[in-house]
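Handout, section B. The chain below has 131 residues.
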Amino acid sequence: MTKLNQESNAALPRVGWVLYDGGCGFCSRWVHSWEKIIGKRGFSIKDLQSAWEDGSLKCPKEKLLDDILVLTRDGGIESGADAYLFVARRIWWAWPFYAIFRLPGFNWLLWRGYRWFNRNRYHISRHCPLP
């Protein structure tokens, strides 16, 4: 049983947790600016480092900061661009983004853009400690 499963049901989000790199200035700023919007859709936010340390997230430490993740209450994981789509599907005004980028050619484009941005995110935020 993970730590997230041990929390009281009152503290659990309806859908799951958006897990982000808490050491990255851009990531922290972005996710906190969306906290109210995604909170209304059943998500809580938590940094990847805390989720790994408290046992909520099981993955090798060297892979911890590879992607943004959505950890669902039932233990499912969505990562990278799919994590954005998982959340967008639950926001009425972002649903068209979800619908378009689920299509094969567009999905490839979204993943390619996501991978490029993820590799280069430290250039956007001077506060991100990644090398």
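Note. Residues 3-124 form one domain. Compare this with the example in section A.
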